[in-house]
Amino acid sequence: MRTLILLRHAKAAQAPGVPDKDRALTDRGERDAKRAGEELRMLGLEPEVVLCSPARRTRRTAELAFPGVEVRYEPAIYQAYPEELLERLRLLDPDHGTVALCGHNPAVHELALMLAEDDYLFRPGTFAVIKTAVPWPELSAGEGELVTSWGPQHD
């Protein structure tokens, strides 16, 4: 079995004049990213590698959620379509058992639905854990099972 953790970046600030790629996490986003990592560790999940968009908000989310884990910043993840993310996952080392992908909506949520259809919200800081029995190179739509999802709750 292989495990895929799909993590949407945490809450980011909207600042006039700041390019989208340079948007920083808010204080709440910083807390939520740390909490997402804590939730994953309580589930016994730690990825061997994290594939991450190079945008500032995704980089920081990955740093906070997965301290000490190898993070690969990949420009193609930044504005990818879900099919492109799936193609990237197919290139993973078949020996990796648990992998995380930290990216942006709508692609991350659409990829989760493509792999393991379910009905849940994918707000900033949300993750989905999907298990699959197929090797990464054979991963395709419907080949996963949603094990759990989690998202920060705010009033």
Automatic annotation (TrEMBL):
InterPro entries: His_Pase_superF_clade-1, His_PPase_superfam, Mito_Ser/Thr_phosphatase. It comes from the Bacteria. Coiled coil: none annotated. The keyword Hydrolase applies. Keywords: Hydrolase. The keyword Hydrolase applies. This is SixA phosphatase family protein. It comes from Nonomuraea harbinensis.
